[in-house]
Amino acid sequence: MAVTAFDIKAQVHIHITGQTIDDIMCTALEGGITGWCDCAEVVGGKYLGEYAHEQISRGGSLMLYDAESTDKWELDREKFLRGLRLWMEDGDGICALNEGEVDAALVDSEAADLIIQYALFGEPVFG
Description:
This protein has three helices and five strands. Strands 1-2-3 form a three-stranded antiparallel β-sheet. The protein has a two-stranded antiparallel sheet with strand order 4-5. It is an alpha+beta fold. It is globular, with a radius of gyration of 16 Å.
């Protein structure tokens, strides 16, 4: 007898803390996005935390500059959360969930890069 396969789409409620956002942003800025992003600057020049990676969770934004052109993109919390959602919907992020919460320890530099690319572009653009 042939084995039958079925596709389903599941919807999950995800909880993410400001600390987890900070941790993912730190991973992104310290290695995840460095292949295509040359520089990240705090928009407005005023740090809302001690470090630049703490801007997003606190409602600030970062300007990310392309490594090979004059392109730049502004990242804020709303875009970050959209990127996280799209990453989850794509199926990659499910492995980072721990009892309904995003576990930053399970988000490596490649995953952090994808989250930021989803946030800025709606899809992965850079390899």
